[in-house]
Amino acid sequence: MLTFGLAAYPAGTVHGALRTLLGLLGVGAAGLLVVGLLARSTAPLPWSIGLLGISAAVAMLAGGGPVERAAPLYGPGLLLAAELAYWAVDRARVPGEPVGVARRRALLLVAMAAATGLLALLVTLAGGLAGAATGWEIRALGVGAAVMVTWIVAVLARRAGGH
Amino acid sequence: MARTFSPKLAAYVVLVAGALLAALVLRRPGLVGLAAPFALWLAVGLATAREPELEVSAAADRDRAVKGEEVEVAVRVAATTMVERLELWVRARPNLEPVAGTGSRVLRLAAGEETTVRFRLRCGRWGAYRLGEVQVRCHDRFGLLAFDRTVAAALPLKVYPSPQVLRELLRPLHAQRLVGDQRTRLAGDGVEFAEIRPLLPGDPMRHVNWRASARRGELYVNRHHPERNTDVVLFMDTFAETGDERGSTLDLAVRAAASLAGRYLAVKDRVGLVGFGGYLTWLYPAGGRAQLWRLLDVLLDTRVVTSYADKTIQVVPVRMLPPGAIVIAITPLLDERGIRALLDLRRRGFEVAILAISPAALARPSTGEVGELAWRLWQLERDALRIRYQRLGVAVAEWRPEEPLEIPIGEVRRFQRRLRHARA
Q1: What CATH superfamily classification does B54-160 receive?
Q2: Partner residue opposite B40 with nearest CB, options A116, A124, A129
Q3: FRET partner for B256 with CA separation of 20 to 30 A, picked from B84, B168, B385, B401?
Q4: How far is CA B340 from CA A34, B290, B321, B335, B387, in A?
């Protein structure tokens, strides 16, 4: 579902023949993902993610603003889609993954997606869109920074307690 | 452990490099935003990945099994360092397949944790095996690196053929002089009553039948059937075999030999084995449980080896064929050398009975008129061969895979009975 959303979004920001082209890229990416999942093979997955990235890049070049501003969400979304696809193939190849292992992997995915989203936001803003930053971006950056600092402190405290 | 980079690592590196390059060339910071998550994933993943330290060992619950049974392999894993995701599986071998749902496991081990994982393998065919290798693969938390190790289990396993139930056995026309469990047709010392006759000088007084003596007015003694044993030589023709996915004539022959050997040894007969084919193997006749295991071990090594050498029965050691032994040949009657050897044995005075493993049940005729004609001609040739054997006094019974072994055994016994009456 996430992949379909990532495939559709860039096409929705452009018009005309470009929309058709991006639509085809999106369909191709989704198709490759489905093939990889059904065949339990990781070979098509990089191509699927690559096509989504190319679609986003073309939309940025053509449409500019909307996709570029959404990059802090689109990038982590792309990472999340890639990791979920690889995880699905791993579970199909070697079934019987314990619940504990799956839970830890899911938590890691969510945490890294959030962290990378903040990083992407920071990079995007620092890259020249700072003047166009809206309130929600600044607030998101602030919240994310606070969460990150809290987490780092917690990890350090646990390690100190362990020693 | 052998370290390998997962395909995901290469894919992410290419994506990051491509996006950053495009961002530089096209001056689009948004593309850096697309690449940043993947770059962070790679950086954190590679920085935190460590080779795990594990001890892995495997053991089987037994070293002998019967075809169709399951063998359990216990793999003990002790982790010195934390392993986020550990995959374990036993490499399948032909005829030793993991039972459904037990072929692979995924674990997570904390530092210092130890666990035992059990796999069940089904023995699909008789033979001697070394239990499959255990493959261990550890993944780091971010799935970028994999650490592989193969644990060579090297656990020997002997899978014996599943025995057939046999209620009756083949007996020679004349039993041996050695004491056994089988009732002979002679009269003498024994348990089972045979007849009464007048007392002769030398008869022990304890055998006198006082009631019969009182009725007849002279002394009569009881006579019993003495228990004697038999020397049995299982003659396996291993020049050729035929078969399909259901099995082969060799599989059936080994199963029959194991069943007969077990049954004869259980009644204190002596059993020997001759493997007459590309490789000549033999085991001298002997009795007891130890002989059964020796026979089964020799049977496990039985295989058809293509050979063009013209072998005769003279290559078999003389001691392998004791006088008075019954030779039970288990053969598909496909190779001329095996056929001639059995005829030669009969002409030398040995009592021979043939269990002909039917290749017709395991082979398919070629399609077309010529194929069908060839099939019928071949079957007529087999019938003619059977008649040729029977004229020499050799019982031949064809065994089809779907029949119990008792059916051809019964057919041979009926032939022996007719032969005995004809001679009488």
Answers
A1: Immunoglobulins (2.60.40.10)
A2: A116
A3: B385
A4: 64, 32, 17, 9, 14
